[in-house]
Predict the 3D structure of the following.
Amino acid sequence: MNITHTRVITFSPTHTSLKIARAVARGWQGTEADELDLTCRQLREPFAIGADCMAVISVPVYAGRVAPLALQRLKDVRGEGTPAILIVVYGNRDYEDALVELRDVMTAQGFVPVAAGAFIGEHSYSRPGMPIAEGRPDEADLALASDFGRRARIKHESGNSEPFFIKGNVPYREVGTPTPQAPVWHEDDCTGCGTCVDCCPTMSIRMTDEGEVQTEPSTCIKCCACVKACPAGALTFDTPYTAMLHAKFSARREPELFI
Ligand SMILES: Cc1cc2nc3c(=O)[nH]c(=O)nc-3n(C[C@H](O)[C@H](O)[C@H](O)COP(=O)(O)O)c2cc1C
């Protein structure tokens, strides 16, 4: 079937997966794509993407797997033999089994992978003074992503729909139960703008009538959307992982493309 349009489908609390997906879609069709952004949105009923659409599905890696909330939000997105470019974005440590997991889940939901890529995004835990892939995706990443979209189109139009190699293992790596933790609010810096409340994917932040910001560790997914979006720097997420990742994973990694 002829592809008439592309659609970016993403879950992207700190926008790196979104940026890569947009660049890939631009490379495919030369213009901006429609977007289904599931970061702060749970579909209420199945959402079908027809086979005349190229789906660009892009999600973050958490603990070497697809971020669990991304999988949950994607579960009602259905393909109808719909071609898809699959992307995971990770914070310069590793993506381990996330890309094969995304392939398996989206294939089971009716998508047909055309190409897949693992890209690098600034780590959620990156901080001023302790950067981890700071500023990524950068111009070089976005140019590569756009070219990847262009190449995926050429492949698709050649009629090549053979299964292709994607790095990762099945069974996927096991992930332990996360320890509840949420960002800490710094009252003196807060201007009460409410950006943190609006950008939290799990509604784990509330502002009281007195203007106090409360964060809820039991539902927080540690995505750091609020930390990065706060214009006043009034939220911090302190974890020993930041120093460890900064020390061990500062060497630049490059995207890996499977096509
Ligand atoms: C809970 C959590 C776990 C993460 N695990 C990994 C990981 O295993 N490997 C890695 O390189 N980056 C990891 N990251 C970093 C994110 O994959 C990275 O920052 C990504 O760019 C975030 O995507 P987004 O901007 O679309 O939200 C993790 C981040 C969080 C919040």
